[in-house]
Amino acid sequence: MKHSVLYLRGISQIFLLSNPVIGLVMVITLALLSSNLLFGCLLGALVGVITASLVELDKNKIDLGLFGYNPALLGMAILTFYEISLTVCIVIVLASIFTTLITSKISTLLGPKIPPYTSPYLLTVWLVLLCSPYLNLIPVSTITHVQAITIEPFTPIKGLGQVLFLDSVFASLLCLIALTIHSFRMAIWAVFASVLSLVFALGLGFDPVAIEQGMYSYNAVLVCIVLVEKCKSKLVIITIGTCLSVLITHAFSFLNLPALTAPFVLSVWIIYWLKMLYRPIFPQFTL
Protein backbone atom coordinates (compact mmCIF):
# COMPACT_ATOMS: atom_id res chain seq x y z
CA MET A 1 0.00 0.00 0.00
CA LYS A 2 2.81 2.39 0.95
CA HIS A 3 4.59 1.79 -2.36
CA SER A 4 1.36 2.35 -4.31
CA VAL A 5 0.82 5.70 -2.59
CA LEU A 6 4.43 6.68 -3.30
CA TYR A 7 3.99 5.67 -6.92
CA LEU A 8 0.78 7.71 -7.30
CA ARG A 9 2.41 10.74 -5.68
CA GLY A 10 5.09 10.63 -8.35
CA ILE A 11 2.43 10.62 -11.07
CA SER A 12 0.47 13.43 -9.37
CA GLN A 13 3.62 15.56 -9.47
CA ILE A 14 3.05 15.84 -13.24
CA PHE A 15 0.62 18.54 -12.05
CA LEU A 16 3.28 19.65 -9.52
CA LEU A 17 1.16 18.41 -6.61
CA SER A 18 1.97 15.62 -4.14
CA ASN A 19 -1.45 13.97 -3.80
CA PRO A 20 -2.03 10.23 -4.45
CA VAL A 21 -5.72 10.83 -5.20
CA ILE A 22 -4.75 13.14 -8.06
CA GLY A 23 -2.32 10.48 -9.24
CA LEU A 24 -5.11 7.90 -9.22
CA VAL A 25 -7.43 10.16 -11.25
CA MET A 26 -4.64 10.70 -13.76
CA VAL A 27 -4.03 6.95 -14.09
CA ILE A 28 -7.77 6.39 -14.64
CA THR A 29 -7.81 9.17 -17.26
CA LEU A 30 -4.92 7.61 -19.17
CA ALA A 31 -6.43 4.13 -18.86
CA LEU A 32 -9.70 5.35 -20.38
CA LEU A 33 -8.17 7.33 -23.23
CA SER A 34 -4.72 5.97 -24.11
CA SER A 35 -3.23 2.62 -23.11
CA ASN A 36 0.09 3.60 -24.72
CA LEU A 37 0.41 6.79 -22.69
CA LEU A 38 -0.61 4.88 -19.55
CA PHE A 39 2.13 2.31 -20.19
CA GLY A 40 4.75 5.00 -20.79
CA CYS A 41 3.70 6.90 -17.68
CA LEU A 42 3.73 3.86 -15.39
CA LEU A 43 6.99 2.47 -16.76
CA GLY A 44 8.78 5.80 -16.48
CA ALA A 45 7.51 6.52 -12.97
CA LEU A 46 8.42 3.02 -11.77
CA VAL A 47 11.97 3.22 -13.14
CA GLY A 48 12.38 6.71 -11.67
CA VAL A 49 11.36 5.70 -8.15
CA ILE A 50 13.44 2.49 -8.23
CA THR A 51 16.51 4.36 -9.52
CA ALA A 52 16.20 7.09 -6.88
CA SER A 53 15.89 4.45 -4.14
CA LEU A 54 18.82 2.35 -5.40
CA VAL A 55 21.24 5.28 -5.58
CA GLU A 56 19.92 6.57 -2.24
CA LEU A 57 18.77 10.02 -3.32
CA ASP A 58 16.94 12.32 -0.87
CA LYS A 59 14.33 10.09 0.81
CA ASN A 60 12.02 12.99 1.58
CA LYS A 61 11.96 13.95 -2.10
CA ILE A 62 11.33 10.33 -3.06
CA ASP A 63 8.37 10.21 -0.67
CA LEU A 64 6.97 13.42 -2.20
CA GLY A 65 7.15 11.87 -5.68
CA LEU A 66 9.77 14.29 -6.96
CA PHE A 67 11.76 11.55 -8.71
CA GLY A 68 8.74 10.00 -10.38
CA TYR A 69 7.12 12.66 -12.50
CA ASN A 70 9.99 13.55 -14.85
CA PRO A 71 10.44 9.91 -15.95
CA ALA A 72 6.64 9.52 -16.17
CA LEU A 73 6.43 12.53 -18.49
CA LEU A 74 9.36 11.18 -20.47
CA GLY A 75 7.64 7.82 -20.99
CA MET A 76 4.49 9.51 -22.26
CA ALA A 77 6.42 11.89 -24.51
CA ILE A 78 8.43 9.12 -26.17
CA LEU A 79 5.26 7.12 -26.85
CA THR A 80 3.66 10.27 -28.27
CA PHE A 81 6.45 10.57 -30.83
CA TYR A 82 7.27 6.92 -31.51
CA GLU A 83 5.47 3.62 -32.03
CA ILE A 84 5.71 1.22 -29.10
CA SER A 85 8.32 -1.50 -29.55
CA LEU A 86 10.95 -3.36 -27.55
CA THR A 87 13.54 -0.77 -28.56
CA VAL A 88 11.30 2.08 -27.43
CA CYS A 89 10.72 0.36 -24.08
CA ILE A 90 14.48 -0.02 -23.58
CA VAL A 91 14.95 3.66 -24.49
CA ILE A 92 12.28 4.67 -21.94
CA VAL A 93 13.98 2.64 -19.20
CA LEU A 94 17.47 3.98 -19.92
CA ALA A 95 16.25 7.54 -20.44
CA SER A 96 14.23 7.38 -17.18
CA ILE A 97 17.35 6.31 -15.29
CA PHE A 98 19.31 9.17 -16.86
CA THR A 99 16.52 11.66 -16.08
CA THR A 100 16.41 10.61 -12.44
CA LEU A 101 20.17 10.88 -12.04
CA ILE A 102 20.44 14.34 -13.58
CA THR A 103 17.52 15.66 -11.52
CA SER A 104 19.64 15.92 -8.38
CA LYS A 105 22.55 17.39 -10.38
CA ILE A 106 20.33 20.10 -11.89
CA SER A 107 18.90 20.85 -8.43
CA THR A 108 22.42 21.36 -7.09
CA LEU A 109 23.34 23.55 -10.06
CA LEU A 110 20.28 25.80 -9.69
CA GLY A 111 20.56 26.10 -5.92
CA PRO A 112 17.95 25.64 -3.18
CA LYS A 113 15.71 28.53 -4.23
CA ILE A 114 14.98 27.47 -7.83
CA PRO A 115 13.43 24.01 -8.37
CA PRO A 116 14.34 22.11 -11.56
CA TYR A 117 10.66 21.36 -12.27
CA THR A 118 10.48 19.42 -15.57
CA SER A 119 13.88 20.49 -16.95
CA PRO A 120 15.43 16.98 -16.55
CA TYR A 121 12.61 15.51 -18.62
CA LEU A 122 12.96 18.22 -21.26
CA LEU A 123 16.69 17.75 -21.71
CA THR A 124 16.35 13.97 -21.92
CA VAL A 125 13.48 13.97 -24.41
CA TRP A 126 15.26 16.46 -26.65
CA LEU A 127 18.36 14.25 -26.48
CA VAL A 128 16.30 11.18 -27.47
CA LEU A 129 14.73 13.09 -30.37
CA LEU A 130 18.14 14.20 -31.62
CA CYS A 131 19.49 10.65 -31.35
CA SER A 132 16.40 8.93 -32.78
CA PRO A 133 17.83 8.51 -36.32
CA TYR A 134 20.53 6.28 -34.79
CA LEU A 135 18.10 4.32 -32.57
CA ASN A 136 15.83 2.98 -35.33
CA LEU A 137 12.73 4.37 -33.62
CA ILE A 138 9.57 4.40 -35.72
CA PRO A 139 7.74 7.76 -35.65
CA VAL A 140 4.02 7.69 -34.89
CA SER A 141 2.09 8.17 -38.12
CA THR A 142 -0.18 11.19 -38.02
CA ILE A 143 -3.23 11.68 -40.22
CA THR A 144 -4.18 15.31 -40.69
CA HIS A 145 -7.86 16.05 -41.22
CA VAL A 146 -8.59 19.40 -42.81
CA GLN A 147 -11.52 20.97 -41.02
CA ALA A 148 -12.77 24.31 -39.84
CA ILE A 149 -11.31 25.47 -36.55
CA THR A 150 -13.95 26.45 -34.03
CA ILE A 151 -13.66 27.47 -30.41
CA GLU A 152 -16.22 25.33 -28.56
CA PRO A 153 -17.48 26.09 -25.04
CA PHE A 154 -15.02 23.63 -23.46
CA THR A 155 -12.06 24.49 -25.71
CA PRO A 156 -10.61 26.95 -23.13
CA ILE A 157 -9.95 24.11 -20.66
CA LYS A 158 -8.27 21.73 -23.12
CA GLY A 159 -4.90 22.83 -21.82
CA LEU A 160 -5.55 20.71 -18.72
CA GLY A 161 -5.76 17.52 -20.78
CA GLN A 162 -2.69 18.47 -22.80
CA VAL A 163 -0.61 18.23 -19.62
CA LEU A 164 -1.13 14.48 -20.14
CA PHE A 165 -0.63 14.73 -23.93
CA LEU A 166 -4.38 14.27 -24.46
CA ASP A 167 -6.34 16.42 -26.91
CA SER A 168 -9.65 15.67 -25.23
CA VAL A 169 -12.31 17.67 -23.43
CA PHE A 170 -13.16 14.58 -21.37
CA ALA A 171 -9.54 14.25 -20.23
CA SER A 172 -9.49 17.96 -19.40
CA LEU A 173 -12.61 17.62 -17.28
CA LEU A 174 -11.12 14.68 -15.38
CA CYS A 175 -7.93 16.68 -14.77
CA LEU A 176 -10.05 19.60 -13.57
CA ILE A 177 -11.81 17.25 -11.15
CA ALA A 178 -8.40 16.08 -9.89
CA LEU A 179 -7.31 19.67 -9.25
CA THR A 180 -10.62 20.44 -7.54
CA ILE A 181 -10.11 17.48 -5.21
CA HIS A 182 -6.81 19.01 -4.15
CA SER A 183 -7.99 22.64 -4.01
CA PHE A 184 -11.10 24.27 -5.44
CA ARG A 185 -9.33 27.63 -5.47
CA MET A 186 -6.40 26.20 -7.45
CA ALA A 187 -8.80 24.64 -9.97
CA ILE A 188 -10.47 28.02 -10.54
CA TRP A 189 -7.12 29.72 -11.08
CA ALA A 190 -6.03 26.95 -13.47
CA VAL A 191 -9.16 27.52 -15.56
CA PHE A 192 -8.46 31.25 -15.49
CA ALA A 193 -4.90 30.69 -16.78
CA SER A 194 -6.12 28.32 -19.49
CA VAL A 195 -8.77 30.77 -20.69
CA LEU A 196 -6.40 33.74 -20.53
CA SER A 197 -3.74 31.91 -22.55
CA LEU A 198 -6.29 31.06 -25.24
CA VAL A 199 -7.54 34.65 -25.47
CA PHE A 200 -3.99 36.03 -25.49
CA ALA A 201 -2.84 33.62 -28.22
CA LEU A 202 -5.93 34.36 -30.33
CA GLY A 203 -5.39 38.09 -29.89
CA LEU A 204 -1.84 37.78 -31.17
CA GLY A 205 -2.98 35.76 -34.18
CA PHE A 206 -1.05 32.58 -33.37
CA ASP A 207 -1.73 29.19 -34.98
CA PRO A 208 -5.49 28.56 -34.56
CA VAL A 209 -5.09 24.77 -34.78
CA ALA A 210 -2.59 24.73 -31.91
CA ILE A 211 -4.80 27.11 -29.92
CA GLU A 212 -7.87 24.90 -30.42
CA GLN A 213 -5.90 21.84 -29.29
CA GLY A 214 -4.81 23.55 -26.07
CA MET A 215 -1.14 23.69 -27.05
CA TYR A 216 -0.84 27.30 -25.90
CA SER A 217 -2.65 26.60 -22.63
CA TYR A 218 -1.12 23.62 -20.82
CA ASN A 219 2.08 25.45 -19.91
CA ALA A 220 -0.02 28.34 -18.59
CA VAL A 221 -1.88 25.87 -16.35
CA LEU A 222 1.39 24.58 -14.91
CA VAL A 223 2.69 28.13 -14.38
CA CYS A 224 -0.51 28.95 -12.52
CA ILE A 225 -0.28 25.89 -10.25
CA VAL A 226 3.22 26.91 -9.17
CA LEU A 227 2.53 30.63 -8.73
CA VAL A 228 -0.86 30.42 -7.06
CA GLU A 229 0.77 28.99 -3.91
CA LYS A 230 3.57 31.56 -3.86
CA CYS A 231 1.88 34.87 -4.56
CA LYS A 232 -0.37 37.14 -2.58
CA SER A 233 -1.01 39.34 -5.63
CA LYS A 234 -2.13 36.33 -7.66
CA LEU A 235 -3.89 38.11 -10.50
CA VAL A 236 -0.86 40.18 -11.54
CA ILE A 237 1.75 37.43 -11.25
CA ILE A 238 -0.36 34.69 -12.85
CA THR A 239 -1.28 37.01 -15.71
CA ILE A 240 2.39 37.82 -16.32
CA GLY A 241 3.39 34.15 -16.09
CA THR A 242 0.57 33.02 -18.37
CA CYS A 243 1.32 35.57 -21.09
CA LEU A 244 5.02 34.83 -20.86
CA SER A 245 4.38 31.10 -21.35
CA VAL A 246 2.29 31.82 -24.46
CA LEU A 247 5.05 33.96 -25.99
CA ILE A 248 7.71 31.33 -25.27
CA THR A 249 5.47 28.60 -26.71
CA HIS A 250 5.16 30.60 -29.91
CA ALA A 251 8.93 31.16 -30.00
CA PHE A 252 9.43 27.37 -30.08
CA SER A 253 7.45 27.21 -33.33
CA PHE A 254 10.55 28.65 -35.00
CA LEU A 255 12.80 25.92 -33.62
CA ASN A 256 13.21 22.31 -34.69
CA LEU A 257 12.33 21.06 -31.20
CA PRO A 258 8.94 20.55 -29.54
CA ALA A 259 8.23 23.03 -26.75
CA LEU A 260 6.83 20.40 -24.37
CA THR A 261 6.91 22.02 -20.89
CA ALA A 262 9.85 24.35 -21.63
CA PRO A 263 7.61 27.48 -21.69
CA PHE A 264 6.38 26.62 -18.19
CA VAL A 265 9.87 26.06 -16.80
CA LEU A 266 11.35 29.17 -18.44
CA SER A 267 8.41 31.39 -17.42
CA VAL A 268 8.65 30.44 -13.75
CA TRP A 269 12.44 30.64 -13.74
CA ILE A 270 12.31 34.12 -15.30
CA ILE A 271 9.94 35.28 -12.56
CA TYR A 272 12.18 33.71 -9.90
CA TRP A 273 15.25 35.40 -11.33
CA LEU A 274 13.51 38.77 -11.61
CA LYS A 275 12.51 38.49 -8.00
CA MET A 276 16.06 37.71 -6.91
CA LEU A 277 17.60 40.43 -9.09
CA TYR A 278 15.13 43.15 -8.27
CA ARG A 279 12.80 42.34 -5.41
CA PRO A 280 10.60 45.48 -5.66
CA ILE A 281 9.19 44.18 -8.97
CA PHE A 282 7.31 41.42 -7.17
CA PRO A 283 7.21 42.44 -3.49
CA GLN A 284 4.53 39.87 -2.62
CA PHE A 285 6.11 36.93 -4.42
CA THR A 286 7.79 34.59 -1.94
CA LEU A 287 10.61 32.26 -2.93
Description:
The protein is mainly α and 287 residues long. It has 14 helices and no strands. The chain starts with a helix and ends in a 10-residue tail after the last helix. The mean pLDDT is 89.
In short:
With 287 residues, this protein is mostly helical. The protein is built from 14 helices and no strands. Helix content is 67%, strand content 0%.
Features:
mainly alpha, 287 residues, globular
Helices and strands, with pairings:
Layout lengths: L1 H11 L7 H14 L1 H20 L4 H6 L4 H13 L4 H25 L8 H13 L26 H5 L6 H14 L1 H20 L4 H6 L4 H11 L5 H18 L10 H16 L10
Write down the overall geometry.
Answer: globular
Separation of the first and last Cα atoms? 34 Å
* Proportion of helical residues: 55-70%
Biggest sheet features: none
Low-confidence stretches: none
